[in-house]
């Protein structure tokens, strides 16, 4: 009888402890990606089993429907406790109140790649478990056949060398186009992949020194016009397919020999490595003002309405363990955000086939403009690039883009950044 009473008491204590756990809801953009979902769900299970204060439950959405779902939930006052956010969108969500500062000690992420830290107004709002990088991808045999120097991080191609490579590939007659720029992917790819070219010419999407109040002179100034003329020439001269590119060609054209080069991300590096044994990942060319690639991918944050930011932060900090960063990298091919996690991976350890992407992210990556108006400005930029690629007047297209960006900034009272 005494034993039964003691067992019953223990059961009651366990039940009381279980009931004391506070539930945290989490939304995630990766529905449909089986590998990614398995890793996220394993982290959640490990976290829930590791402590008795919090229990996380997840709801996943398809990526193309996720942002709309978050906006709708925010308007309805029904945000989850934890959510993930695409890095360049974070300032908009923070400004709108969808997010609140993330209570994690800065020293915890001191070693993380810069692009994985979501900072706005000098406060940390989000942290990424991976980053992504773009490279100029080709084969060493292609470079050799075309008589081209292999560029390095220390000595990237100049504009003259890059255009010489485009002309050599075109003149060889061996390719349908010299390069695949990914024009069929008319989404965030355009500002992520092509804004670095504008930066390299010396322009920008919006003027940071004005507090992100104007795009005049940076998106339509002399440097931007030079970029626009070069951009249009890539299509009028037949070096790259335009916006009407078939998505299937973008997905497999490089492997099938349609393109000598592809401007592409590390998330597609594994198929390229499987197709060829001499793939090389090259740094962005320098068009006169440095060479750049985009930074910041998806990151974890706590919502602006959660009553338990400390619980959300506890989960996010738990997820930052190197073993999970390693598993994401091995599973989906993206860049682990710490050198210790990189050393644990199959592809990013020293001498690994994709280790160069870590170096590219560390040395070349630059954040897209960190201001709340970025989502609108990005769409305006993408439209301008599409129009120019299709033959529209360069100056008119860029002037129109400036007007539209400034109209949005003004209609939102400067996003509070005057």
Describe the structure.
Belongs to the bacterial solute-binding protein 1 family. Keywords: Signal, Transport. By secondary structure, the chain is an alpha/beta fold. The chain folds into two domains: 184 residues, 3-Layer(aba) Sandwich (D-Maltodextrin-Binding Protein, domain 2); 205 residues, Periplasmic binding protein-like II (D-Maltodextrin-Binding Protein, domain 2, 3-Layer(aba) Sandwich). It contains 16 helices and twelve strands. The protein has a four-stranded mixed β-sheet with strand order 2-1-3-11. Strands 7-8-6-9 form a four-stranded mixed β-sheet. A hairpin with a 2-residue loop joins strand 4 and strand 5. The termini are far apart.
Helix content: 40-55%
Instruction: Please work out how many helical segments DSSP would assign.
Output: 16
- Profile the largest sheet: 4 strands, mixed
Number of strands: 12
Top CATH class of the largest domain: Alpha Beta
Order of helices and strands: HEHEHEHEEEHHEHHHEHEEEHHHHEHH
Please name the CATH topology of the largest domain: D-Maltodextrin-Binding Protein, domain 2
Q: Name the CATH superfamily classification of the largest domain.
A: Periplasmic binding protein-like II
Q: Which value, in Å, is the CA radius of gyration?
A: 24 Å
Assigned CATH architecture of the largest domain: 3-Layer(aba) Sandwich
* Order of strands across the main sheet: 2-1-3-11
Distance from N terminus to C terminus (CA atoms, Å) equals 74 Å
Average predicted confidence as pLDDT: 93
Given the C-alpha coordinates, what overall shape results?
globular
Percent range for β-strand residues = 5-15%
Low-confidence stretches: 6-18
**Regarding quaternary structure, how should these chains be classified?**
single chain
Number of domains: 2
> SS-based structural class?
alpha/beta
């Amino acid at each position: 009888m005494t034993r039964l009473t003691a067992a019953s008491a223990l059961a009651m204590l366990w039940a009381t402890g279980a009931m004391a756990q506070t539930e945290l809801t989490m939304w995630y953009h990766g529905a449909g990606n089986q590998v990614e979902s398995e890793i996220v769900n394993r982290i959640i299970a490990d976290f829930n089993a590791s402590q008795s204060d919090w229990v996380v439950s997840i709801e996943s959405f398809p990526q193309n429907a996720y942002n709309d779902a978050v906006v709708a939930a925010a308007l309805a006052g029904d945000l989850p406790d934890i959510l993930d956010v695409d890095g360049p969108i974070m300032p908009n969500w923070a400004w709108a109140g969808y997010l609140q500062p993330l209570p994690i000690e800065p020293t915890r992420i001191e070693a993380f790649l810069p692009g994985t830290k979501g900072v706005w107004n000098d406060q940390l709002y989000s942290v990424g478990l991976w980053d992504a990088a773009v490279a100029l991808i080709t084969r060493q045999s292609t470079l050799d056949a075309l008589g081209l120097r292999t560029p390095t991080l220390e000595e990237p191609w100049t504009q003259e060398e890059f255009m010489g490579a485009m002309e050599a590939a075109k003149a060889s007659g061996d390719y349908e186009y010299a390069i695949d720029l990914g024009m069929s992917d008319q989404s965030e790819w355009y500002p992520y992949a092509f804004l670095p070219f504008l930066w390299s010419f010396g322009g920008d999407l919006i003027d940071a020194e004005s507090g992100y109040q104007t795009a005049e002179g940076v998106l339509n100034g002399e440097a931007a016009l030079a970029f626009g003329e070069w951009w249009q020439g890539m299509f009028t001269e037949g070096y790259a397919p335009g916006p009407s590119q078939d998505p299937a060609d973008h997905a497999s054209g490089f492997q099938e020999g349609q393109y000598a080069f592809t401007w592409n991300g590390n998330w597609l590096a594994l198929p390229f490595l499987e197709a060829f044994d001499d793939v090389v990942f090259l740094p962005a060319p320098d068009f006169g003002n440095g060479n750049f690639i985009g930074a910041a991918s998806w990151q974890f944050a706590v919502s602006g309405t959660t009553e338990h930011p400390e619980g959300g932060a506890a989960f996010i900090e738990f997820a930052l363990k190197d073993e999970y960063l390693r598993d994401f990298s091995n599973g989906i091919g993206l860049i682990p955000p710490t050198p210790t996690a990189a050393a644990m991976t199959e592809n990013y350890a020293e001498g690994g086939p994709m280790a160069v992407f870590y170096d590219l992210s560390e040395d070349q990556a630059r954040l897209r403009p960190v201001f709340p108006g970025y989502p609108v400005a990005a769409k305006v930029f993408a439209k301008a690039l599409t129009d120019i690629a299709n033959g529209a007047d360069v100056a008119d297209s860029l002037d129109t883009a400036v007007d539209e960006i400034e109209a949005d900034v003004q209609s939102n009272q400067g996003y509070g950044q005057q």
